Amino acid sequence: MKIFDTHCDALLKLQIAKRNTLFDGEMLDYRKSNDLETNFERLQAGGVKVQFFAIFIHPEFPSDEKWQHALEQVDIFYSEILGKNPLMKHIKEWKDIDQLKPDEIGAVLTLEGADAFGNDLTKLRHLYRLGVLSIGLTWNNANLCADGVGDPRGAGLTVLGKEVVCLNNEHHVFTDVSHLSIKGFWDVMDLAKYPIASHSNARSLCDHPRNLNDEQIRAMFTNNGMIDVVFAPQFINKDSEQATISDLVRHIDYLCSLGGIQQVGIGSDFDGISSHITGLGNASEFPNLINELQKQYTETEVEGFAYRNFLNHRPGM
């Protein structure tokens, strides 16, 4: 079965490895490196048809270096992922997904946190031109656009942040709420035509600030948004580094109980998580999740979770 995965951090891993080559390190081979949970061969083995690749800049980097870090990750996306793997195809517009051949895998570029462009909307427009199709305003920290879930202030969107959401709307780009403060989330609900939670679970089942509460979940579904479940055990079982596939399915069940049967998808966070669900350690093991879902959902519903729900909620389609 085809899989669409809306979040991974392979670009950051590849960038770290590339920088380490300057000090006698070894560049990772995106095609087959065991250090990459979403390497090409694992995507193939797991049936992944579309993989999202996040540009992530750590907030501790100096502000004047963040844009360079972002460009490095974009360059790696073009050179190491697309350039060396002919069957990886860049999805520059959402309709490109429909043109993928049976053996091709679509690659979507995303941005996790507006720190990369600061308050420079020219840089943001460059990211649109480079093919970024989903933008999360924050990671866990605060920036010039909004506060993240890790900032105790808990403020919402700034004037700049609201302008970015409006630009996302114009460019048919998702606005990702997965790391936003609660107040920021509600500001996005007021403005965004294309909201997505690219990697979040249900807070009622696991009380973690990265998860969405019931009111937020219902608002996402009311506003035609997608919620893609994340595989990090600490977002599945409270205060735990362990989880089973059944534990993850409980979150899918809960989201469906709140009206999301046609708006739930997958956002693994592979290559960005420190521990893993038993039986879901990398992209090659996606069939284990599909098999578990098929025990209690119809084939049509499972196809929805795997890829069809996303197809039906693409911006501008």
UniProtKB/TrEMBL annotation:
E.C. designation(s): 3.4.13.19
Gene Ontology molecular function: any one: dipeptidase activity
Keywords carried by this UniProt record: Dipeptidase, Hydrolase, Protease
Pfam families per UniProt: Peptidase_M19 (PF01244)
SUPFAM superfamilies, alphabetized: Metallo-dependent hydrolases
Tree of life domain: Bacteria
PANTHER family membership: DIPEPTIDASE, MICROSOMAL DIPEPTIDASE
Record protein name field: Dipeptidase
